[in-house]
UniProtKB/TrEMBL annotation:
Feature: compositional bias, Basic and acidic residues: 309-326, 359-376
Designated gene of the protein: NOP53
Transmembrane spans: none
Amino acid composition bias (Acidic residues), ranges on this chain: 290-300
Main location: nucleus
Organism taxonomic ancestry: Eukaryota, Metazoa, Chordata, Craniata, Vertebrata
Family: Belongs to the NOP53 family.
Domain of life: Eukaryota
Matching InterPro entries: Nop53/GLTSCR2
Regions of compositional bias (Basic residues) in chain numbering: 32-46
Descriptive protein name: Ribosome biogenesis protein NOP53
One of the protein's GO biological processes: rRNA processing
Gene Ontology molecular functions: 5S rRNA binding
């Protein structure tokens, strides 16, 4: 930028440079007396340096570039002057003249558009980044290497793969029937699966082949219905026997719950044998005093017995070895006789195998039955166990006589929530406990204090 300023300043000093400003203004500006300042110090360079002439020159150059597109001294005479030969009048019909006037009035731009138009003749700066290409040297080197290999007759690796690839098997395309064919089969647009018409090799390489849906996702988590119908005894005006059957069922549920509570109490209760007595307390106090003396005596006896043991003679060792060999021979003979006896037990062995197969079939059938029963039972999906909802039942004296006196019981939202838990759609949950962050502070108001 400094070099450009220097060149333009040198151009201004040339005798052919024409300035837009008058010479009188520049003389008035330069007529003032300069202040004598010591310029040996750096802080006075920018403070007391007179660059007014440079700024005026640069402003004049910018003005000429905006107005004429360059310096006036460099422009040819044809672009700056023209020959005035007077106004030439042409005979024009009045209809054509009116039409031209109308066109001019229509094509005349608005003043706001004229203000916003770009009036500078300076061309926009060149975008260097638009002509740059990333990795240009690398791409140029790759292209040069490819040209050299092509001249030598060597194919690149990508082209070799394309040539060595196995051609796709040609599949016979089925001819589609015309739309106006009345006997064509019915096609379900939403029920049928979409047919793959693309190349199988392409589908395999791109991974666009449809994944087979697992059969487990098509099975329901439970075979229970979404809405279970209550027993006949739960009606507003039930039959006597059906109402008694429902009461018996509710009674059994309560008895089972009470037994479970009693079982837990018995397990947590303290036994009489575990209660402390004076004898057990004294035994705990003297624990370890007598046993230490007995252990010391046992250690002394074992050391003496080890010292008294003598080494076995060669004759005793031979006798032990012969006894061991005889016992092994007896064992082998017993196994051989047992195998012989099994030949006469083929019928009993066959009957045993049949009984074992029968037990296996019964176990398989029982396992399948258990699996079918589990489909209608809630599974353990979380840390909590499913607890069935209490039966909504009324006693005999609470049964209303008509629908007008019937009182609503239960909650539809809670019933649906329990149904989804029972059908293994969501895990059993419990209500979150509210924990107060700060303690409640009780303050006695002034008005209450005055009364008390």
């Amino acid at each position: 930028m400094a070099a450009v300023k220097r060149l333009k300043r040198v151009a201004a000093l040339q005798p052919g440079f024409i300035s837009f400003k008058s010479s009188a203004e520049s003389d008035d500006l330069n007529s003032g007396r300069r202040k004598r300042v010591n310029k040996n110090k750096k802080k006075n360079w920018n403070k007391h340096s007179d660059i007014q002439d440079v700024e005026e020159f640069l402003d004049d150059v910018r003005l000429q570039e905006r107005a004429t597109g360059g310096l006036i001294s460099e422009k040819p005479d044809d672009s700056l002057f023209f020959v005035d030969i007077g106004e030439q009048k042409k005979s024009v019909l009045p209809e054509v003249q009116e039409r031209k006037k109308g066109k001019k009035s229509k094509s005349r731009p608005l003043r706001i558009d004229l203000i916003l138009q770009h009036d500078s003749l300076v061309p926009p700066p060149k975008d260097v980044l638009a002509y740059q290409q990333p990795n240009a040297k690398k791409l140029r080197r790759i292209a040069e290497n490819a040209e050299k290999l092509a001249a030598m007759g060597v194919l690149p690796r990508r082209q070799k793969r394309l040539l060595n690839r196995r051609p796709a098997t040609k599949t016979s395309k089925a001819k589609t029937a015309a739309n106006n064919f009345p006997d064509r089969p019915y096609y379900d647009l939403w029920g049928g699966e979409a047919k793959e018409t693309a190349d199988p090799y392409y589908l395999e390489q791109t991974g666009k082949r449809r994944v087979k849906r697992p059969e487990k996702l098509n099975a329901k988590p439970s075979i229970l219905p979404a809405v279970e119908v209550i027993a006949p005894g739960g009606s507003y005006n039930p039959d006597f026997f059906s109402h008694q059957a429902l009461l018996l069922e509710a009674h059994e549920v309560e008895v089972t719950r009470e037994r479970a509570e009693l079982r837990i109490e018995r397990q947590l209760a303290v036994k009489r044998e575990d209660t402390a007595t004076e004898e057990t307390v004294f035994q705990e106090l003297v624990e370890g005093l007598v046993e230490e003396e007995e252990e010391e005596e046992d250690d002394v006896v074992s050391i003496r017995g080890g010292l008294q043991q003598e080494k076995k003679t060669e004759k005793e060792r031979k006798r032990e070895r012969a006894d061991k060999i005889k016992s092994q021979q007896k064992q082998a003979a017993r196994v051989f006789t047992d195998k012989k006896q099994q030949l006469f037990q083929l019928r009993s062995i066959q009957a045993t195998l049949k009984r074992r197969e029968q037990r296996t079939r019964e176990r398989v059938a029982q396992r399948k039955a258990n699996q079918e029963a589990e489909k209608s039972m809630p599974r353990r999906l979380g840390r909590l166990k499913f607890q069935a909802q209490d039966l909504e039942i009324q006693l005999s004296d609470e049964i209303p006589g008509s629908l007008r006196t019937l009182k609503p019981e239960g909650s539809v939202l809670k019933d649906r929530f329990k149904s989804m838990q029972k059908r293994n759609m969501i895990e059993p949950r419990e209500r979150a406990k509210f924990k107060r962050r700060h303690k409640v502070k009780y303050v006695e108001k002034r008005a209450f204090r005055e009364i008390t």
